[in-house]
Specification:
CATH architecture of the domain at 11-87: Orthogonal Bundle
Number of strands: 2
Distance between the termini: 60 Å
Shape: elongated
Low-confidence stretches: none
Strand content: under 5%
CATH class of the domain at 11-87: Mainly Alpha
Mean pLDDT: 85
Length: 115
């Protein structure tokens, strides 16, 4: 079987990246859980999936809150950039699609309908 072009993480891990990004942005599993409307346990499970896949911890968990490790900072920096660029492209596509739709000529009327 051919190897995929990109050496990406498994689909399970890709799904968990949104959880990681929110957790890293807030430096709080609780705030990430609230934002994503999932349980705190689900946040912890998703973070563990990524940490297991990468083989390194992404957060240090002191008594209060969480702190990014060096690897966590690196991953967050790249993800935040990718998510931001993706959001910008999606917004541009949506806006261009709307303006194209609004510039279409009105539909032709059928001669048979008498209109």
């Amino acid at each position: 079987m051919a190897r995929p072009y990109y050496d990406l993480l498994s689909l399970t891990v890709l799904t968990a990246l949104e959880v990681f990004e929110a957790s890293a942005r807030h430096l709080s599993f609780e705030l990430a859980a609230s934002e994503l409307n999932v349980t705190l346990g689900e946040i912890s499970r998703q973070i563990k999936v990524i940490e297991d896949e990468l083989g390194v911890p992404l957060f240090v968990r002191p008594r209060t809150g969480v702190v990014l490790t060096s690897a966590g900072k690196d991953l967050y920096t790249e993800l935040a950039s990718i998510f931001s660029k993706t959001s910008d492209v999606a917004t541009t596509i949506k806006n261009c699609s709307r303006s194209r739709i609004s510039r279409l000529p009105p539909p032709m009327r059928s001669r048979r309908s008498g209109q």
